[in-house]
Structure to design on (433 residues):
């Protein structure tokens, strides 16, 4: 598969962060919304505050591949999608060369089922985080009347769905994309669907609001018990994507690591959830003034160690566990991290240890022995959050840190290097010769 020009991040540590950074629109809200836009058989969907990240570009390629007309007005951060011509079942395919590069590709399946009566999944990607199953999605589609057949030889999934009807669904764990996908499968199905043990993430609620504006009948968002009454048709609407709480968390932790005083435009302290209180305990000061979140850390006061256990929202977000691990290497004492969502997240520990950290991993638990003086090294981004966390570590390391492959950072953070550089950091994103 073509990767385009490969890039890396090069960071020289030792500078505090000061100034203003703009927090992007949420990756994990925009991807389901691009999938949802394909449910509208008339009109043009307008999505605003769209982050200019690789996952969005892949999602738009996929939307075009299945027959939608797509415009990305990058300067306006606006995407316009016309899905009125999604009527060729031959195109109801998620090809591996696009779909295997991001997890969000699975969010296209409901639209293909409704609009073309079938879907073939030739690959679904996403960060390399160990085992990441999609059984809740497939079993849920089947309970709503789809036929889901695995072609083991080719490693494809073939779904046929001439007729979807409401059903009673229960998720064994409150899967984020699983909840979104089952809602999208239910909105145009005949009758009522109930989804028990549904995800509570703010992005899921934003997606529900978007679908409701399109005419979907959904109640119970944010309660864990969602009811969907199927409707005949959905209309294209305009929607502004919520801000990305993970991007905000990473910038807050970068400020905490380097020391300094930063205003995050668009960041919402409430969406950070418990991560806010963990950082508060470590010695990071927050204050929200309207749409601006102010983050401050006095570099002369040492950071305190922290314990965090990842769990679905409102628990500590697994996507923020990686930058927290990097930050904890600087804290005075032992920090404990318990990862409950992804078995692969701790690949970061070895990379941070190459930079001088002292992190012990035992199964799903990690102990970070701080404080350590980090030094620059060549390190590997195993996934999006590892990549961003290594850049963060590089901000405080002595000498130069080189993080590759940069594509993984670019999957989820827009203009990461230039936004950090605007705060005074020495970070460049450059092609690998
Ligand atoms: C595009 C997107 O929104 N990605 C986010 C989403 O991923 P994603 O929606 O893939 O994560 P899930 O909430 O589904 O995964 C949670 C856990 O459930 C398991 N599981 C999930 C589905 C399933 O059918 N069977 C199953 O066993 C997974 O392996 C994982 O251990 O939520 C994650 C957890 O907050 C975030 O890290 C990702 O950034
Ligand atoms: C795991 C992540 O993304 P995805 O689900 O798209 O792989 C992430 O955002 O950290």
């Amino acid at each position: 598969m073509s990767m385009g020009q490969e890039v890396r991040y090069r960071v020289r540590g030792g500078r505090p962060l000061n100034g203003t950074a703009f927090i992007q629109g949420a990756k994990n809200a925009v991807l389901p919304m691009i999938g949802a836009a394909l449910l509208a058989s008339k009109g043009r969907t307008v999505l605003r505050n769209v982050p200019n990240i690789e996952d969005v570009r892949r999602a738009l390629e996929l939307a075009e591949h299945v027959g939608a007309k797509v415009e990305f007005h990058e300067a306006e951060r606006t995407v316009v999608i016309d899905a009125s011509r999604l009527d060729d079942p031959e195109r109801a395919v998620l090809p591996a060369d696009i779909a295997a590069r991001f997890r969000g590709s699975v969010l296209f399946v409901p639209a293909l089922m409704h609009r073309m009566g079938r879907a073939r999944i030739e690959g679904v990607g996403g960060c390399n985080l160990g085992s990441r199953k999609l059984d809740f999605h497939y079993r849920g589609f089947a309970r709503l009347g789809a036929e889901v057949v695995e072609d083991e030889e080719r490693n494809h999934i073939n779904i046929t769905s001439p007729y979807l009807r409401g059903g009673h669904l229960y998720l064994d764990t409150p899967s984020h994309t699983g909840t979104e996908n089952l809602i999208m499968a239910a909105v145009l199905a005949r009758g009522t669907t109930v989804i028990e043990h549904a995800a509570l993430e703010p992005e899921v609620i934003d997606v529900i609001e978007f679908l409701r504006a399109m005419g979907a009948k959904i109640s119970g968002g944010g309660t864990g018990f969602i009811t969907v009454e199927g409707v005949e048709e959905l209309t294209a609407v305009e929607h502004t994507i919520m801000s990305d709480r993970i991007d905000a968390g990473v910038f807050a932790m970068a400020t905490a690591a380097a020391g300094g005083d930063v205003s995050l435009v668009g960041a919402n302290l409430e969406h950070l959830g418990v991560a806010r209180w963990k950082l508060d305990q470590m010695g990071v000061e927050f204050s929200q003034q309207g749409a601006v979140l102010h983050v401050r850390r006095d570099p002369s006061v040492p950071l305190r160690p922290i314990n965090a256990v990842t769990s679905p929202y409102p628990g500590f977000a697994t996507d923020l566990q990686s930058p927290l691990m990097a930050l904890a290497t600087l804290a005075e004492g032992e920090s404990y991290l318990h990862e409950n969502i992804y078995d692969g997240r701790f690949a970061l520990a070895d990379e941070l240890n190459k930079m001088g950290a002292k992190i012990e991993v035992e199964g799903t638990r990690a102990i970070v022995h701080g404080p350590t003086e980090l030094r620059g090294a060549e390190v590997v981004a195993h996934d999006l959050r590892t990549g961003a966390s290594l850049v963060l570590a590089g901000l405080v390391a002595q000498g130069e840190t080189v993080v590759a492959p940069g594509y993984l950072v670019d999957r989820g953070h827009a203009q990461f290097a230039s936004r950090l550089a605007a705060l005074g950091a020495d970070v460049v994103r450059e092609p690998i010769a």
